[in-house]
Amino acid sequence: MKTSAIPLDQLPPAFRRLASLAPLDATDLKALEAAAHAPRTAAAKRDFTGSLSSASGPVLILDGWALRACLLSDGRRQITELFLPGDIISSEPTDQRSSYSIGAITAVTWCALDPASAAPGTGLNQALCAVELLKEQALRRHIVRLGRLDALDRLADWLLELYARLDSAGSCVGNTMPLPLTQEVIGDALGLTSVHVNRTLSALRREGLIEVQGGRAIILNADRCRAMVGLN
Amino acid sequence: MKTSAIPLDQLPPAFRRLASLAPLDATDLKALEAAAHAPRTAAAKRDFTGSLSSASGPVLILDGWALRACLLSDGRRQITELFLPGDIISSEPTDQRSSYSIGAITAVTWCALDPASAAPGTGLNQALCAVELLKEQALRRHIVRLGRLDALDRLADWLLELYARLDSAGSCVGNTMPLPLTQEVIGDALGLTSVHVNRTLSALRREGLIEVQGGRAIILNADRCRAMVGLN
DNA sequence: CGTTCCTTTGAACATAGTCAATAAACGTGG
DNA sequence: CCACGTTTATTGACTATGTTCAAAGGAACG
Questions:
Q1: Which residue among A100, A139, A143 sits closest to B78, beta carbon to beta carbon?
Q2: Chains A, B: CB pairs < 8 Å
Q3: Theoretical Cys-Cys bridge with B139: which of A139, A152, B172, B218, CB 3.0 to 4.6 Å?
């Protein structure tokens, strides 16, 4: 039943990301395309927690960058996750009081997947499980970053993770990746102030490790970054 | 089929925790007891990552405290999760290179659950899903703590979370809970040094908020703790 | 009873935060 | 295409929170 040899390179990033995690057959792709036929959008910088609750199944990011953040009573916030094309936003039932919210960073296109199309045994189901697993690993990794890495290592390690995720969706060119984030957003993700992010980015560039500028990041020396961080 | 009215109070903590998350019927309890009939143990302070791989299904902590930690190349470590009685240790396939390990804090008793006994639709399945969901929420919350709370708030918020988890297993007496952790372990969980944990614990006591001593913690003023932290 | 691990405390230091001011980039409407 | 207002980036000086190093006192355990 598997029509293999789907031309990965021609898929849009969101589908390509999923296809990179599990073999998707024609049925899976048809289901994805059907879901993507009823796309919803969220404007840049807008909270769209509310619109998500209308979705019955898993929510798939088709395009754009989104985040989950927690607001503190003094106005500061901590971003716990970024959602890129191909990512799934899990529903988080009940615990709505805990003041987590989903926001769009850039303009975002998303859709709800039909639970039936991701029934156990399908490639799509495998892919969604893999995404979920990766997300949990990413949460743990972020805990390690925030708990034990200083600003330089934290930023380097985090940018490398983003590169890997974007690359698996085919969104990177050479060692360059899109990074449509202000330094303030980066700070909110990494538990730093935007001022300190700015200084740390300068340091990364000065060291010839990573260059961030104009909505893009260039990994100048991945090996040296990894050696510096000392994780793995 | 549901034999309701199971006397919660008489269940051992691990079962009680699960029963608090989903209604368990006699079949569920029988399955749990069967699994617990083949208990495995890990000595205090020992790594038991290896023994877990022999388990075919979900691993349930029956007794004792365990942790998942990540070791850095310079010897420091970050604890990402604590596992208490009633918690499930998820398997983490493949990604074994990432140097996460499971260790016993106290002596630990655990068992592997039969996947069949937790088939979809059973109460046990619901309970396991609920545990998994709570764990993911705990990971996010910890990210917020590490990213945005100072040592005092971090410690207070974390101890309150531990209290809630222990209480749902029936392990607390009044406002007192067991806390078999050295200040070094607390530091590794919270991204602090043991020295600073010590000073911060003094501050918590001085403020009349929480008292930690001799393997126990007493929540002196939960409301004031929550107000101070400013999360939720 | 001695050894080891854990806690407690002090002093000096380091990393990151705060406040503030300026410059650059961006978006919008003329 | 330019002028203007707003957001974002950059830099400096100062402060604060947490770390490091070191030493000493307690508690636990064989």
A1: A143
A2: 90
A3: A139
- Which bases of strand C have any atom within 7 Å of the beta carbon of a protein residue? 5-11, 15-20, 25-26
pLDDT cut 70: percent of chain B above it: 94
User: What is the rounded average pLDDT of the residues B60-75?
Assistant: 97
Hey, what domains does chain B have and what are their CATH numbers?
1-117 (2.60.120), 139-232 (1.10.10.10)
- Asked whether residue A213's C-beta has any atom of DNA/RNA strand D within 7 A, the reply is yes
How many angstroms away from the CA of A4 is the closest CA of chain B?
24
Chain B, nearest residue to A228 by Cα: B73
Contacts of residue B94, defined as CB under 8 A and 6 or more positions apart, other chains included, come to: none
Check CB contact of A230 with chain B, cutoff 8 Å: yes
pLDDT of residue A2: 44
> Whole-model pTM?
0.96
d(CA B38, CA B154): 38
Interval B185-209 mean pLDDT: 98
**Integer Cα distance of A83 and A138 in angstroms:** 12
Walk across the sheet containing A176-178 and list its strands. A176-178, A216-219, A210-213
Query: Which regions in chain A score pLDDT beneath 70?
Result: 1-6, 92-98
Strands A66-71 and A77-83: antiparallel
